Amino acid sequence: MKVLDKKKAIIIGAGPAGLTAALELLKRSNMDVTVLERDTVVGGLAKTVEYKKCRYDIGPHHFITESERVTAWWQEIAEGDFFQHKRYTRIYYNRHFFNYPLEPVNVIRGLNVIECARSIFSYVWVRFFPIKEVSSFEDWVTNQFGHRLFSIFFKTYTEKVWGIPCNEISADWAAQRIKGFSLSKAIFYAFFGRFFSSKNKPRTINDIFHYPARGAGTFWEKVAARVTSSPQAAIHLQQNVTRIEHDRHRIISVSTHDLTAPSVGAAVPLIRHEADDFLSTMPLQQLILNLDPLPPKPIIKAAQALRYRGLITINLIVGRPHVSADHWIYVHEKTVRMGRIGNMNNFSLKMVDDPAKHTALSLEYFTYVDEPFWFKPDYELIELAKYELEKIGLVRATAVIDGMVLRTPEAYPVYDANYKEHLNAVLGYLSTFKNLHLMGRNGMHRYNNMDVAMLSALDVVDRMIIEQQSHNISESPQKQSSAARL
Predict the structure, then answer these.
(1) pTM metric for this prediction
(2) What is the DSSP string of 286-339?
(3) CB atoms inside a 10 Å sphere around CB 428
(4) Which residues is 35 bridged to in the sheet?
(5) How confident is the model at residue 367 (pLDDT cuts 50, 70, 90)?
(6) What does the alpha-carbon distance between residue 388 and residue 474 come to, in Å, rounded to a whole number?
(7) Measured distance CA(143)–CA(123) in Å, rounded
(8) Could you tell me which of 382, 442, 440 has the C-alpha nearest to residue 409?
(9) With the CA atoms of 257, 260, 263 and 266 taken in that order, what torsion angle do they form, in degrees rounded to the nearest 10?
């Protein structure tokens, strides 16, 4: 296979997409590769952080994919540190815990026979009289499950995540995340799922995943180590991209502010990075607003209309060796603000300092960064988490012995009713830069899982290889002709 000519690539972001692209370029080309990351560690949303010898993911992030290419990639990097788990997930609703995937007896006990009958009737009704003009998340899910189950198992949690009513969320998000799943399929797999391999189940209910012993972030630390082991590559942390220079056809350079530099006194000079190709995972809104010169006003307005949902994870150390068997608990309860609970002990006992005494819990709270909730002091948030754990009957507040808070400002690109119009305008403008390649969740404004973010990076590298090969082939006759004249 031909390799790329000697060139330089700048990659913005050291999350799953950025690191995947970096390693692939090093494997398949002789390009110099520089990765610029704003955070203090690699991994992006899939990083793992440590607090008092307990380890927490932001998520947590499990390793599951339908792509054989990604599976092989994971296994090659993990080198055996990749343990298989059978997922155990529950939904908390109306003071009951429901197993997910659904189990008939569990659902009947939790909802009672009358509510189950209403849910089935609601589903049958919508099969005969579906919503014809599907424009919102509410419309899409109602057509798949019926309005009754939409109200029970989708509405509250979804509105916690996005902070807007379900009828104002685009149907694109439901179609992408839930895909072709429906109540009939949920019931079918509840009764007969045990007879099907996990490979044949819809991803939504697939119960087998893999996980590294010390957290998802350790996988990406391994990828980063491979990248930096090459003399042609570097990863620079705490570099915030603040300027992207272009000539209206190509990106020329990006400039970063070194967040480690002292801020007292004179302004810290920007560091300019030139390259031939630029691969970006940064939020599209920031990308547009950092362009120099700025785009036309309609493009700026479209970028400013793109919204992001922030995530606050409140990570607690509980003075009990066992809290629950769950990997995740989805909290569909209106009386508490928390959205999801991750039990790190059940991912790996190496995620906790002393599994005989402690449990590491990660509670997720969703907010916009301009809401008062985002600015609450850490001690208030920890007290809220303790109160809500006790309120749903999972852990007494007095059992929590310590905790810390993490804030992620652009965790979820928002699919509001008009997002597609704004996104298409932004992507259309950015497509005019031939050496700019977009990938990853925020780089494409697409709420995808870790494996899909990786696939977007692999696709970018594939296209770069193909384009360079085509360029080399087209140049060959000219070179031969010049040699003949000589």
Answers:
(1) 0.89
(2) HHHHTEES---HHHHHHHHH--EEEEEEEEEEES-S-S-S-SEEEE--TT----
(3) 11
(4) 11, 235
(5) very high
(6) 65
(7) 8
(8) 442
(9) -60
